[in-house]
Design goal:
- This protein is α/β, with parallel strands linked by helices and 690 residues long.
- It has 3 domains: 3-242, no CATH class; 263-417, 2-Layer Sandwich (Alpha-Beta Plaits); 441-681, TIM Barrel (Alpha-Beta Barrel).
- The chain is 59% helix and 14% strand.
- Strands 10-11-13-14-15-16-17-18 form an 8-stranded mixed barrel, surrounded by 4 helices.
- Helix 14 links the parallel strand 8 and strand 9.
- 36% of the residues are buried.
């Protein structure tokens, strides 16, 4: 074996661990954030490019005897830039989220041209003169380079998701294959570049040897490349992505159906598909993944205050910040509204998840500037771990439950699913199943809390109270089940039943000669229904009940957190002839002047204000101010929680219009409601007013 052949063999053996090391770089690129990805990709491309340049220079030194010190600095720099571009095209193609055939061809062709120009500029930079290109040989060399690049891209991409055994052996085998391809590419390029300055080995004298080597290497390389490409696309790529046909519309439609049109993130369907694939890989490799539910806190007020256009722009920016905070191996989708879901892959321990999630929290904590509007939001994140926290279906439920628990802890919080949440989550799921059965079996019933005139004690109406007659637990108040009803989408059906039953009670009272007015509580979730007013009006008309007999009680919380939408809804209610009462007034900090902007008929004082009114000067002053303002705005004032005569007398002194509480009557069933009417009216004729 000649000295040149020994050097060639040594260089080849040295190149194998270099390509093996390049496989490791692609793995590390997967675990960095999107924000850091571009810089790190360029850094790794520079390292790989320098390695390939040195390898090329080494191969060239074996066969040529012209000076190795650059005689043309510009061409020398051009050769280095071409080696960088070659490495960059391969690494960037490998780290794409998906790799259709057109992207593979683009990456391979870019690498092919870069590799050929690398050698061309190196020849000139090293002193070669009178260079000519043999076109046929150059095309053959380009094919070899492109096939080698395609093999490198597909191999690296395939190894990233490899789920079998002997990963390191496979890496070594493919490193040898790519090293052979690089050597074949170098030899083919040298055959195509003809020049007249001195060589230690004249290419024309050794053409037979070069051609023999190429005839051996090229079929092997071609076979391996074809095999890996077919295997890769058959098992990992959607066939619609790999077609080169002309069904652009169909492919575009499928892509549109998989992505959210606003943020361009994958939608829930795409997320579910990716979740199944990731779970299967975890099962095979014994790995874990985390599912993170990301929900924005108080996003609705942004729409109410700034408009939906600003809200949409904010969601786009939120999506970008979340994507930048995640690693390249993670996956994020928009589940709908202001909710995003992330799949965190390749987690080795608890701290890996904490690091990523904390980056998301910190990213969303920073203020947003949207069309010169300063907007601050926060998020709540619930995390569940697969397979520790159950199968895929349970994983979603558990992450959702953890997210709600994080919300309870305040802003910018995250919470892992744990035993405490599991107990609450299991109870919630049990409530969901039982609620479905309760709706089917009509296990609900209504109680009525009378509202009486403050002065005469005559009955003015009643508040409708929903109860669940549970088969084993007895009579349950809404506080036990209303959260589950709202979370699992059953609140609309329950509220409709309440309204229909209330209308039936009003009709029966009218048949007995009683002019009954009823108050019905509306859930805050119902205000998301744009057609709520029309729906209520339809129920009233269908049951032949006049709107003047029904008062809709809405929580003060809606007025605080959804001001614009709340005002618009109340204005619409008024046009339909529906009366509204602002419930729990005084429970939250609230501007009294805001009352003038609300189309309401009544204010209900929360029991926290009436409890101490007879003994507290502060409570007395607050209630007196509220009553005076309400009367100035021609609003009726109702006091809740009146339990003794002293409270009643104080409220009468202030000028409260109506009251309800245990002093007059406990909540009663329908059959007793009309008797209570008669009882209280009888008492009002025998008792003094003060």
């Amino acid at each position: 074996m000649s000295r040149a052949q020994v050097l060639l063999l040594l260089l080849f053996l040295a190149s194998v661990p270099g390509f093996y090391w390049a496989f490791g770089l692609t793995q590390s690129l997967r675990k960095i954030t999107t924000k850091e990805f571009d810089f790190t990709l360029k850094k790794y491309a520079a390292l790989v490019g320098i390695g390939m340049f040195c390898l090329h220079a080494g191969y060239q030194s074996v066969s040529d005897n012209y000076p190795k010190i650059s005689q043309h600095p510009i061409d020398f720099i051009g050769a280095i830039l071409c080696s960088y571009l070659l490495a960059l095209s391969v690494l960037s193609s490998v780290n794409k989220k998906s790799l259709p055939v057109r992207e593979l061809l683009y990456g391979a062709l870019t690498a092919g041209f870069s590799g050929y120009l690398l050698s061309y500029f190196y020849h000139i930079a090293s002193g070669a003169i009178n260079i000519n290109i043999d076109l046929l040989t150059a095309l053959f060399a380009m094919c070899i380079i492109c096939l080698t690049a395609a093999l490198a891209i597909i191999t690296m991409l395939w190894l990233k998701g490899y789920e079998g055994k002997s990963l390191n052996k496979l890496k070594l085998i493919f490193a040898v294959e790519i090293a052979l391809g690089f050597l074949a590419s170098h030899i083919a390029i040298n055959l195509s570049i003809l020049h007249s300055n001195q060589f230690s080995l004249n290419p024309s004298d050794n053409v037979a040897n070069y051609v023999s080597l190429l005839m051996i290497l090229a079929p092997i390389l071609l076979f391996m490349t074809t095999f890996v490409i077919i295997l890769f696309y058959e098992r990992t790529v959607d066939i619609t992505q790999s077609r080169l046909g002309f069904q652009v519309t169909q492919v575009g439609t499928r892509k549109t159906l998989s992505y959210d049109p606003l943020t361009h993130l994958p939608n829930r369907d795409a997320l579910n598909q990716h979740l199944m694939i990731t779970a299967k890989r975890c099962d095979r490799n014994g790995e874990s993944m985390a599912l993170a539910y990301i929900d924005l806190d108080h996003f609705k007020p942004v729409n109410d205050q700034f408009g939906h256009h600003i809200g949409d722009l904010l969601l786009i920016e939120v999506a970008k910040r979340i994507s930048n905070a995640l690693r390249n191996c993670d996956y994020v989708a928009r589940a709908g509204g202001d909710e995003f879901i992330a799949i965190l892959s390749e987690i080795e321990n608890h701290q890996n998840v904490v690091t990523v999630v904390q980056r998301v929290v910190d990213a969303l904590r920073e203020p947003f500037i949207i069309e010169n509007n300063l907007i601050e939001i926060s998020c709540s994140i619930g995390i569940s771990i697969y397979p520790r926290d159950g199968n895929l279906e349970k994983l979603k439920v558990n992450a959702d439950a953890a997210m709600y628990k994080a919300k309870e802890n305040g802003k910018n919080q995250y919470r892992f699913f744990d035993a405490e949440i599991e107990q609450a989550s299991d109870a919630m799921q049990q409530t969901r199943v039982q609620l479905k059965q309760a709706i089917t079996d009509r296990q609900f019933k209504l109680l009525f809390q009378p509202k009486v005139d403050a002065l005469t004690r005559t009955v003015r109406g009643a508040e409708v109270l929903l109860r669940w007659q549970h088969p084993s637990k007895g009579l349950l108040s809404p506080s036990v089940f209303i959260e589950a009803a709202e979370r699992f989408g059953m609140i609309e059906e329950i509220n409709e039943w309440v309204m229909v039953q209330a209308c039936d009670t009003i009709r029966k009272a009218k048949s007995l000669g009683i002019d009954l007015n009823l108050s019905i509580n509306l859930s805050h979730q119902q205000f998301r229904n744009k057609h709520l007013g029309e729906h209520i009006k339809f129920i009233l008309e269908n049951n032949q009940v006049s709107p003047e007999h029904l008062i809709l009680e809405v929580s003060e919380t809606n007025a605080i957190h959804h001001q614009k939408k709340f005002r618009d809804t109340l204005r619409h209610f008024k046009t339909l002839g529906l009366k509204v009462s602002l419930d729990d007034f005084g429970l939250h900090p609230f501007s009294l002047s805001y009352l003038k902007n609300l189309e309401i008929s009544e204010v209900k004082l929360d029991r926290t204000l009436t409890q101490e009114i007879a003994h507290s000067e502060v409570s007395f002053a607050i209630v007196e101010a509220i009553v005076k303002l309400a009367h100035a705005l021609h609003l009726n004032v109702v006091a809740e929680g009146v339990e003794d005569e002293e409270q009643r007398l104080t409220l009468v002194t202030i000028g409260c219009d109506e009251m309800q509480g245990y002093l007059f009557s406990r909540p009663v069933e329908q059959q007793f409601l009309f008797d209570v009417f008669g009882e209280i009216q009888q008492q009002s004729t025998t008792k003094s007013l003060f």
